[in-house]
Every structure is written in C-alpha cells, then in structure tokens.
Amino acid sequence: MVLAEVGVGEPVTERARVEILDAAAACFMERGYAATSIDDVARRLRATKGRIYHHFSSKADLFAQIFRTGMDMNFAAIEPLRSLDEPAIAIWTKMAHTHVRQMIVTRAYQRVVWEGVEMHLRGATTPEQRSQLNELVEYRSQYSSVFRLQMARARDQGDMHFADLSIANQMMFMALNSPIFWYKPRPRESAQDIDNIVDQVVAFARGGLGGKDRERP
Amino acid sequence: MVLAEVGVGEPVTERARVEILDAAAACFMERGYAATSIDDVARRLRATKGRIYHHFSSKADLFAQIFRTGMDMNFAAIEPLRSLDEPAIAIWTKMAHTHVRQMIVTRAYQRVVWEGVEMHLRGATTPEQRSQLNELVEYRSQYSSVFRLQMARARDQGDMHFADLSIANQMMFMALNSPIFWYKPRPRESAQDIDNIVDQVVAFARGGLGGKDRERP
Question: What does the record give as the DNA-binding region (chains A, B) (predicted)?
C-alpha cells in the first residue's frame, strides 16, 4: 500500500521514491532504526540495494525523509481546519480526529517520527544526523503548537479546563498518538470500525482536557 | 541514588546488586538496550565488568532483572490499595496517583519496562530472551488487570463512562505512563511540585475515562 500521496501525472521517479519510503517505514516500525539495514528494506521491496541508493544516500537519510513525509502528511491533513470560524474546542476536536486517523492510517511513518524524537532526546547519533533531527524535531514542534494554540483559546473561552498548558499538551499528544503503539488492523475491519476507535481516542483526550459538552461514544 | 528498596540488615550482596541495577537502568534509559554495553554500566559504576558479571550473567539478564524489579516495585506500591472498602473510582484514583509517582521516582526502571514490552512486540530477541520477556510481559498484564478491574467496577457503579474497556485501559496507561517520556527533574524541585504534576496527570486520565466528581487542580 502506498501511503504517502502521489498525484496523478507525477513523475515515475516520485512514485518509486514513495514505494521505498513505504517499505523502509514498515521495516523501521517492525524492528526499530538500529536493527534495520538497507538490506532489509531491499528484501521487503524485492529490489536491489542499488535501487535504494539511487534515491537515498544512507539509512539515516531514508529515516529523515520518512520523518519529514510523516509530518508533511499531518500538516496537510489539519491545514483546512486551522482557520475555521468556529469555537476553539470545535476546531481542536476536528484536528484531533484528523490527527488520530493519521496515526492509524500512516502509522509506520508516525512510528518513525516517534523514534526520531527519542533518538534526538538521547542524542545517540552522528553530528550530521543530529542537525537533521534538530530540524525535524523543530518542524514537529510547529505542528504541536497548532494544537496548543487551540487548547489555550478553548480554555480562554471556558470550554476546556486544565492547569499547565505544557503538561496538558504532552498528555494530549500521548493520548492522541497512542494508537501507533496499540492499534492492530483486523481482518474485515470497516471504515466504521476505524471511526469508532478514533472517536474513543478523541473522547478520552477531550475528557482529559476537561472539554465541555463532550459526546461520549 | 538507590531506587530499588533494600531493607536494613539485608546482606551486602543485595545492596551491591541494587547499585548495579540502578546504574544499568540509567544507562538503558539514556541510550536504549541495543546501544548500551556492560562496559557502559561498569564505567558509570566506576567498577570492573567482573563485578557486574559476578551478579548478572549477561546484558539480557540485567535488563530482565530491571524489568522485574520495576514491576515488583509497582505491585508493592499499589498492594495496600487494592482491597480498600471504597467505591471503585476512589480506589482507582489512589492507585493512579501511586502509579504516576512510581513513573516519576523510578522512571529509569519504568523506561526499561516500556522498552521490554516493545522488544517483546517486535520479537527481535534470542529464544532465551523471548521466553524471559514472555514471562515478564505476562507479569505486567497481571498488574494492568488490577486497574482494569477497578475501571470496570467504576463503570458499573456509574462513576466512569467509556465505551470499550480494552481501549480505555490502553489509553489510561499511556496517559499515566507518559511522564517516563516527558518528565525532567528540575533543580530545587519540591515534593509539592511533584505532587502537582502527579495531580495533573491523574486528572487527565480520570477525565479521559469520564470520571465523575473530578476535582480539577
């Protein structure tokens, strides 16, 4: 399944690139960064290592591109919601639904984002990878601050209740991101089944933020 | 700081063992299992590798003992609360406070528990380590089911509101465990500061579970 979007008419090389990203993201999700080799990715693709090196210079480069693509997809998904003319809690709720769906549908990419943030915190990387990760983690902070802004507004509007904004933001992302750890696709799962999971995750986070008028599933 | 408890009068070897566990847990927390060597642990202890091998047969053994000790401490901490004669939501709330405090105070051990579960899910281990991890993950499931039981009772008693018990349980542990990822000790932090963080984490999880009568901080 090609997860990252490729528009009709985009060059064949872009499609080839996305196929490699998908395969590599799946490998990183299953085994983690350290235990994954370019050989593993090639095996999964039934391709040569040469085909991968034609597009990506190293395992670290591949990892960074997956991180970036994961965040690009998240930003694109919430973009139409940011400027809606609605109460902040309504905007937050729509963004949260969109985010949780992203965590489920593109979870291999999102696991790489998670692992990248961990690697950044641990600092266990080369100087080159460190500067790449610094930039990516900053990109992710910008995304986080879009949610933070709506949470702060919702609290000002009397629709959310929490003490410290930073702690609330951490808790919220842990809750909304959690399906990357526990979600497992089931045979014959319908779109309705996934909606149902998304609803429960958002309801939990919204309740956690003291959200008013919450409709429990 | 010796985190795992050693009773007064316990043999010196037990104290030596706990010092090694503390140092190794700190190394695993900072770098992760794969990137940590027995040499790193010895360096942190300013001891020889021989001293470590006197007590533990391998890095995998050390890791497993930290996992077990982390869970032993968690079980011991909630034990007095399990059989209180109070509404389930009150018992759950006390257990949740205790659990979050554990996550903060013994977080190096709890990060190992987290990484052990990840390694178990990924299956990227030797057969011997796999059987050890199977047992430890089962031990952790027993702990999880203590909370699950109180959540189910609280819902029956009309004091919590959530749809699927398994999803609610996953969300709850992600929320309560989250300080192992974002909590950083600050200079001159008081017991009151930590209480305040614990209160906010528990309030989030309790709100997420649709807990009634919640006192927001």
Answer: 37-56
